[in-house]
Amino acid sequence: MTTRPLRLFCLPHAGGSAVVYHPWRRGLARVAEVVPTELPGHGTRRGEPLSTDLRQVVADLTARVRPLVNDPFALFGHSFGALLAFELARELTAAGTPPSALLVSGRDGPAVPAPGPAVHALPTARLLDRLRLLDGIPPALARDGELLELLLPPLRADMKMVEEYVRAPGPSLTCPIWVAVGSLDPIATAEGQRRWAEETSAPCRLVSVAAGHMLLDHPGFLRELTRELASHSGR
């Protein structure tokens, strides 16, 4: 009997697009079928309206992902994407199609408020200063006015959702949660990430790697992620 690979739906960080996960398609092919998942108004969906309503975005993702779920499947999200993955996991679980696992990085548990003060409405120069602290924008991009005009609207929309997010009451997830934190991350902490354990009746595992906030291509992170995915795919 042929075993189907674990299908991994990946959700991007604030202002990001699905393209950030394209290298994972090959790099993680042994343990998962990576499905980069685009948000409305981002990347290949740039022609669609942006939303600052997280519930609306999650409803859109649910409608797109649910027809594609197989057994097993998992969800991954980084930073803002971790919140989206969590809320998507709640919706899919309520619909009777829970993920085999929720994997997140770069974000404290959903019950932990976003670190203040709010930055989504800051003038561009101050917003870019904030992003530099997170290694969230390459210097060359920060100097490219045309590219910034494309980047900043989705970034501001996503940051608004992050900063206004309040975890709504609801049942715990039933799937295990895997949480990765960069030991040098200035906004996600080991203490805050341990609070992901509150969100599931299954085990929650926390791993730390010697990285900052933007750790998606860090070798240590990728080794840990591969090991975790292999445990769910049976490979």
Structure overview:
The chain is α/β, with parallel strands linked by helices and 235 residues long. It contains eight helices and six strands. It has helices at residues 22-27, 54-65, 80-94, 124-133, 139-142, 145-164, 190-194, 219-233, and strands at residues 7-11, 33-36, 73-78, 101-105, 177-182, 204-209. Strands 2-1-3-4-5-6 form a six-stranded parallel sheet, with helices on both faces. Strand 3, helix 3 (80-94) and strand 4 (101-105) form a beta-alpha-beta unit. Helix 2 (54-65) packs across helix 3 (80-94). The longest helix is centred in the middle third of the chain and has 20 residues, at 145-164. The protein is globular, with a radius of gyration of 17 Å. The relative contact order is 0.17. The mean pLDDT is 88.
